[in-house]
């Protein structure tokens, strides 16, 4: 008999006390016996490279209490909020979770569901307003904010205008089978660099790690031990790889990537000769029209050659404990799976022709991550590393 389960969509970059709080509260609110996490791989939703590789971050999550961790393919994980959320929900529902839990600044599931209903009703009007404003020269975030205030009112627009609430609404739009629950975010916001007691944002923790500031107050020891043993990727190596793409490819090919268009290809080619780092490149391309997130995602799409085409979703197992293993076996045995599950790509992937294009991007993302980290390409390849078991 399948045990009651709760699913979580996450990046865990790295897994910290706020994530532990959300994981424990999700289990408590749902009464679930098994927790399943759909996690970004080596490149993240905003286009950044992860501070630790996907295998290590999945291991940290299981050591900290998650039962099963699977990967969201990079073509979806490194993408806009709607694409990221849709893929994550699709994976969790394919794995038969009973609940999907997400953090939000709101903490009120009924309030969020009411806003989703209103957004669905006004969707065409909102999109038309955004298009008109962008044509007049407004940045996309400003155009979206103005359209939301006009269509659904200032108070509801204010609720939407926070990073976790934005994702929460996208999750709710896509959940079809599972019951949604939300945990009110505790501690600092996503971009806050200030800590609050035992809580600090992932952004703040990454900064502290770069500056060799003590982080033990903000992360479970199991996560610290796992992340610290990883070789960290070099931004300079990533920068050189992106520059190489910019030099080799013509502007039209660069614009053809998923996050491209609107002259970004030309802008990349024109700017790479005058900058000396990835941060300088992003800053040089950023403008009122192009947000930092848009530029970082575009550069990663150029690096991985993620095209604006259809990719098929699948489930890649990264880590599990005994409960997670038993749950997975039960799902495979008793459910008609909507998505293929891969534990060993050498054995299982060759016959799954429809996912080859997606899988190749995940393998490429790992290879590039390993090169940027100075790790052996064979020993740390997706063909060689097996899921972590506890």
Account of the 3D structure:
By secondary structure, this protein is α/β, with parallel strands linked by helices. 51% of the residues lie in helices and 10% in strands. The protein has 19 helices and eight strands. The chain has helices spanning 17-30, 54-63, 74-77, 81-94, 109-121, 123-135, 140-152, 154-160, 163-174, 202-210, 221-228, 235-248, 251-255, 264-271, 278-285, 292-304, 322-334, 345-348, 356-373, and strands at residues 5-10, 34-40, 68-72, 99-104, 179-184, 315-320, 341-342, 388-389. Strands 1, 2, 3, 4, 5, 6, 7 and 8 form an eight-stranded mixed sheet that branches. Helix 17 (322-334) links the parallel strand 6 (315-320) and strand 7 (341-342). Helix 2 runs antiparallel to helix 11 (221-228), helix 4 (81-94) packs across helix 9 (163-174) and helix 12 (235-248) packs across helix 16. 44% of the residues are buried. The model has no long low-confidence stretch (mean pLDDT 93).
Low-confidence stretches: none
Helix content: 40-55%
Number of strands: 8
How many distinct helices?
19
Distance between the termini: 22 Å
Structural class: alpha/beta
Which radius of gyration do the C-alpha atoms yield?
A: 20 Å
Report the sheet with the most strands, covering strand number, pairing sense and barrel closure: 8 strands, mixed
Strand content: 5-15%
Q: On the 0-100 scale, what is the average pLDDT?
A: 93
What is the approximate shape?
A: globular
User: In sequence order, what are the helices and strands, one letter per element?
Assistant: EHEHEHHEHHHHHEHHHHHHHEHEHHE
């Amino acid at each position: 008999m399948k045990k009651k389960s709760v699913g979580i969509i996450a990046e865990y970059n790295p897994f910290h006390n706020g994530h532990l709080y959300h994981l424990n509260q999700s289990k408590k609110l749902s009464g679930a016996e098994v927790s399943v996490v759909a996690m970004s791989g080596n490149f993240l939703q905003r286009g950044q490279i992860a501070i630790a590789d996907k295998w290590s971050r999945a291991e940290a999550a299981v050591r900290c209490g998650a039962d099963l961790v699977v990967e969201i393919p990079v073509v979806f994980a490194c993408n806009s909020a709607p694409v990221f959320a849709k893929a994550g929900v699709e994976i969790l529902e394919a794995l038969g979770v009973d609940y999907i839990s997400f953090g939000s600044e709101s903490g009120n599931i009924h309030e969020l569901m009411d806003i989703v209903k209103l957004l669905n009703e006004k969707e065409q009007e909102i999109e038309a307003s955004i298009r008109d404003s962008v044509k007049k020269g407004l940045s996309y975030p400003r155009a979206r904010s103005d359209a939301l205030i006009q269509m659904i009112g200032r108070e509801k627009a204010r609720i939407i205008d926070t990073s976790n609430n934005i994702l929460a609404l996208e999750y709710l739009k896509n959940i079809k089978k599972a019951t949604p629950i939300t945990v009110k975010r505790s501690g600092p916001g996503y971009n806050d660099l200030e800590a609050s007691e035992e809580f600090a944002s992932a952004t703040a923790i990454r900064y502290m790690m770069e500056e060799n500031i003590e982080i033990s107050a903000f992360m479970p020891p199991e996560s610290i031990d796992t992340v610290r043993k990883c070789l960290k990727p070099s931004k300079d190596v990533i920068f050189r790889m992106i520059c190489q793409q910019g030099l080799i490819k013509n502007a039209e090919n660069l614009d053809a990537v998923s996050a491209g268009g609107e002259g970004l290809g030309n802008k990349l080619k024109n700017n790479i000769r005058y900058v000396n780092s990835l941060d300088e490149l992003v800053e040089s391309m950023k403008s009122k029209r192009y947000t930092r997130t848009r530029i970082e995602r575009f550069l990663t799409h150029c690096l991985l050659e993620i095209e604006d085409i259809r990719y098929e979703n699948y489930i890649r197992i990264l880590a599990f404990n005994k409960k997670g293993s038993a749950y997975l076996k039960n799902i495979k045995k008793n459910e008609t799976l909507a998505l293929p599950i891969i534990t060993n790509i050498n054995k299982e992937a060759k016959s799954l022709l429809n996912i080859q294009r997606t899988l190749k991007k995940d393998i490429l993302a790992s290879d590039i991550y390993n090169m940027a980290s100075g790790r052996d390409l064979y020993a740390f390849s997706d063909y060689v590393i097996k899921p972590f078991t506890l």
